[in-house]
Input
Amino acid sequence: MARPSRRQFLKIMGVTGATLLAGRSKANASDEPAQNYDDTLGMLYDATKCVGCKACMSACKRVNSDYGSLAYEKADFDKDSLWDAPKDLSGSTRTLIKLFKESDKQWSYVKYSCMHCHKPSCVSVCPVSAMTRDKIAGTVDYNKNACIGCRYCQIACAFNIPKFQWDKAIPQIVKCDLCKSTNLLKKGITACAETCPTGAIMFGKRKELLAEAHKRLQEHPDKYINQVYGEKEVGGTNHLYLAAMPFNKLGLPILKEEPPAEFSEKIQHTIYKGFIAPVALYSTLCFIAVKNMKKQEDDQGKHGHDGKKKGDH
Amino acid sequence: MGHDEYQRYDAKILTPSFIVLLALTLIGFTLIGVRFVKGIGAVTNMSDGYPWGIWITYDVATGTAIACGGYAMAILIYIRNHMRYHPMIRSAILTSMFGYGLAGFSVMVDVGRPWNAYNFFIPSKWQANSAMFEVALCVMAYTTVLALEFMPAILSYLEKTDWETLQALMDRLHKYTGINRPEMMDERLESVKDLAAWLKPRLDKILIFVIVLGITLPTMHQSSLGSLLLIASTKLHPLWHTGFLPLLFLINCMFIGYSIAILESIISCYAFKRPFELHELTGLAKIIPWLTVIWLTVVIGDLAWRGQLGTALSLDFYSRFFLLEFCLIAGGSLLLFSGRKRSSIRWLFVSAALIVLGGALYRFNVYLIGFNPGKGWHYFPALAELMITLGIVAFEILGYQVLVKILPVLPRLHTRKQLDAAKA
Output
């Protein structure tokens, strides 16, 4: 009895393994057609123009606090709550200016907010479609009415952008949505870009922003690191950066051009393509199990037992 | 093979261990209450860098692997056709049911907006790209399947019961409060009995298809538990981030499943003072090293292929945890290759424990230890966070302890002896 059943078992293992592996070889067949990212909306942040006034931060909070559940964050020294002093992006803060100082001559401001990726990891992993990417504008939006709060988007995001409200009984995820339902809707521009007094934040279509970025790189090659951050990272983002210092020093990670979501989806899709593998597995197993039950009954019958019901458990 | 192969364990329910476990459970559930009033941050050390802490890592990712005893046993019995293990399945299913049910419960404690969970049942919200979506649906379905698989135990109890406890309770109620027994109570109880008797043969007929579903679903979601971390290519250390994560998690849950079935049997036989099921355990132990050898081969082959063998041996923080996990699993398997050690309860216990520890450490490495979101983030579980996990585990053991004393779950002793005698 043991011999053939072990062979059967190995066969199943083989089939499962083969389905898992077969997927990997034809992994380069992507389901989605190539998209045009020229007209998606984004922002170009030029760190060399930023003076660190943080007007963008306060504008963001003023405009989005009700809709986006933002709040002022008190500093330890500030007993009277006079200033908003977030230390990092958080469940109360969507955008933040930070200063990186290497020496008295080498320093740079940097602005953090959602990168609005072309192939966003957060959208790829959200189990209930609470994170969505607008097909035309390319904006990555969050819907708290769908969100279950599993925080998989936080695990997935290579930029650590989505933030969770840890201290609330009714928490939500907080991240920039390009003022989609607030300033952009009313005035056609994001609050931070509208407010910036030095033109460090430029709002527009990605194609124009990229052209402008490359123009600045060409005109002042001495001033900038020769790279537009976000042009190619994780397959391209709508939020672009120019800076005079290496981006990873400013807290922007060094990333590959392949979107992480493409890698994971390839594997997930090949295992579950058309739901064929699970159904095949189930039917094969059913076939074997029923056959085994029958054999069991026959054996019992032969030995003179009153063969009871099958599938007894 | 009838229901006569199982029996109730006749013993007092209120034991000292019951009290201890109950206390731990109550502390855990009180802290869960605090979490729902004050927010997740009030009881945990999780942060935006480490959004998944010990609850997901232990209760869900590791707990469901430890609850894979039912899955591993079902493969062995129904697919590999080793009916002699059949008496062991009910206790395996019971522990699986608790493991999975409580993993689901932990998820509801862990997620921030559980009231939105109904979105999993709304097709327009489905997101098939997400491994989490697959895991969630599969785990929900499998918990239901486990409950169905356990139904025969409950039905055969209902069929035969005389409702002594309930009758005694009603009498006492009548005595102290003067509340009368509801009319027709006996008839109603009788109809429940009839229903159970009617349902059982019908359930038995389709049960094999439910059982096979109970083999398919864990195959799917255990591999998806590995797929969950595929996306974190920049955060998970290269020692563990590989396209083979789903395959590794699948094999991992199988050898953990068989090892835990051995441990459970030894521990419950010891605790309930029953003879050890040595013959069955030796057979189970034979399977484990083959699975671990496949697993270890995939791990090494994959590391070599990705050029990470040097990293694995560099003896830095990550390498040490990797080597520890590797040695625990390899060491336990080496012991099991020896036939003499396989037929000793003590060595079986040691090797199964080593393999469970190593397998669990692998899952901790993937979900927590090898996970680095960037500079400045640290995580170590808070005391309240640990107490909640401990409370859930205590509730699991408590439930098992009580149910085996009420329902026919453990293998019947005299038939076992007869079977053994027949074989010898």
In short: The mean pLDDT of chain A is 86. Chain A touches chain B through 79 residues (CB under 8 Å).
